[in-house]
From TrEMBL:
This is Transcriptional regulatory protein. GO terms for cellular component: mitochondrion. It comes from the Eukaryota. InterPro entries: Integrase-like_N, TACO1_YebC-like_2nd/3rd_dom, TACO1_YebC_N, Transcrip_reg_TACO1-like, Transcrip_reg_TACO1-like_dom3, YebC-like. Belongs to the TACO1 family. Residues 18-66 form the TACO1/YebC-like N-terminal domain. It comes from Wallemia hederae. It holds the Pfam family TACO1_YebC_N. Residues 76-232 form the TACO1/YebC-like second and third domain. Gene3D superfamilies: 1.10.10.200, 3.30.70.980.
Amino acid sequence: MALVGRCGSKEALLADSSAQDISSAVKSGGGATDPALNARLANALAKARSLSVPKDNIEAAIRRGDAGTVDRGHTATYEALLGDVGLIIECQTANVTRCNQRVKSHLHKAGGHMAACGYLFARKGVVVVELPSGVDAQTHSFDKLFEDAVDAGGEDVVHKDVNLVEIITEPTQLTSIANALQDKGYSLTSYDLAYVPSSGERLEIDGEVREKLTQLIDILEEEADAVHVHTNSSL
């Protein structure tokens, strides 16, 4: 019974985090509530639907993020280091003081600390494409995706996994590139604004640091206030 309770709690946390993601997307988009004009909102809505977040909750989250809504909460962004690994933690909170304390506490327990590391990152658009297997792979191969992404204005194309490819874009071109690739029949798993390593290369980390970083990110992402956790590592 305890396991079921924990699973339910985890699902509730994910749904709550998804709702906050929607509110944050609307707010950061200047109150734009049309997914066609707000790439971050479109991605947040897709995530919410995949988690079966009720329609009423989604609509309430959009209203909270709308520029005309009184209680929108506050956006807080933290820079931190865990050893040589840089982190940027984006939060949406109604209580900044409490959020500060909890983020600092989690960092301290993991052996990290608040530190200016923004220079390690660049704000970019990131489109993630899932390449098909089988017969369709001939039509939508990595080489073809690379060509189509560059033609659409992509800055870099990175083969992340067997079938997953990341296209890095300028923030202002995120939506247009995502739409262009969808129009060509590619399957997008997500597209959003993110902090990526400014050097273009991710920091390689050993097993001990990897374990600490994984645990820290898991804990931060379970926080109701945490919206996104970015790292410059190879994790």
